[in-house]
Design goal:
The complex is a heterodimer. By secondary structure, chain A is mostly helical. Chain A folds into two domains: 49 residues, no CATH class; 104 residues, Alpha-Beta Plaits (2-Layer Sandwich), CATH 3.30.70. Helices cover 59% and strands 11% of the residues of chain A. Chain A has six helices and three strands. Chain B has one domain. In chain B, 69% of the residues lie in helices and 0% in strands. At the A-B interface, helix 2, helix 4, strand 1, helix 5 and strand 2 of A face helix 1, helix 3 and helix 4 of B.
């Protein structure tokens, strides 16, 4: 069991690299799949020193529904931002800094939250506090900064807490 | 069947992608300061390129053998776009080309602005005689 853990420091990364390799070849054949798995073993093993801790309690099923939610949000919010860019004059634009106190502890979870915030248009995650307990976010146009914090916490962070169970 | 719907879908996707890319470019010119300018091209551009890739995906599946490469481009684009946006935001904070961010609700300072010698003495000052 310890040998298996040593060989696969990040099992899902192994799977991901194998899948990416097969897609990159543009053909599904046994040889390519085997070579993908070999790469998927070598690469995470070689870089295990730089990513020592496996995230605990990761739930891929919930991650999938979360991705679909985020993609939908990206499309809706894109139209909103396009509308703001085209119609709101600069003088009436209300950009704001908001800071989000984080309940997430795992670095992988915080990374996904920050990436989500940046990908959903209208918000950019700009910085993390020095010990990683708050996230600085810039909002393009808002009348209610506290409401934005509440939306991000309830819509994304609560779901991420269920994906990365401690 | 697909030969008649295919070109229409490809055309619609191309128009949507080009439209969003145009809005991103307009935003880059129009918005007033570096932090707000960051919003338009990094995000609207992402979906613009996403729609263009979708057009390429449909075209390849309808008119030739089909290819999965576009999905990879999309995946890598969506993973790397937040990182470049984050770097640009950090540079803006560092060079003070934006309003001062509020102090964090937890911890002492934002990591871009935190300097180790400000409150806690760093290791090499303690070593000095």
């Amino acid at each position: 069991m310890r040998f298996v853990n040593w060989l696969f420091p990040h099992p899902l990364l192994t799977l991901l690299i194998a899948v990416v390799w097969v897609i990159l070849q543009n053909e599904i054949s046994a040889g390519m799949a085997v070579f993908g798995v070999i790469l998927g073993i070598i690469i995470p093993r070689a870089f295990a020193a730089y990513w020592p801790d496996r995230p605990t309690g990761f739930r891929p099923g919930k991650m999938l529904s979360y991705s679909l939610l985020v993609m939908w949000d990206i499309m809706v919010a894109n139209v909103q931002v396009a509308w703001i860019v085209l119609t709101v004059p600069n003088a009436k634009l209300k950009p704001a800094w908001i800071s989000i106190p984080l309940d997430l502890k795992q670095p992988e979870a915080i990374t996904i939250l920050a990436g989500t915030i940046t990908l959903t248009p209208g918000t950019v995650s700009a910085d993390l506090s020095d010990e990683g307990h708050s996230l600085l976010v810039h909002v393009l146009h808002t009348d209610d900064p506290d409401g934005e914090v509440e939306t991000i916490k309830s819509r994304y962070e609560a779901r991420l807490k269920e994906i990365f169970v401690e | 069947m697909m030969e008649t719907i295919g070109p229409i879908l490809v055309g619609v996707c191309l128009l949507i992608g080009a439209g969003f890319a145009l809005v991103g470019a307009i935003g880059l010119i129009k918005l007033p300061d570096p932090m707000t300018r960051l919003h338009a091209p990094t995000k609207v551009g992402t979906v613009g390129i996403g729609a263009l890739l979708l057009a390429s995906l449909i075209y390849n599946w309808v008119f030739s053998d089909g290819s999965y490469h576009e999905t990879l481009i999309m995946a890598f684009l969506f993973v790397t776009a937040p990182i470049s946006a984050n770097f640009l935001a950090k540079v803006n904070i560092h060079t003070e080309h934006c309003d001062e961010p509020p102090t964090p609700p937890r911890d002492d300072a934002w990591s871009t602005l935190a300097s180790p010698d400000k409150d806690t003495p760093s290791a090499d000052t303690e070593v000095a005689p």
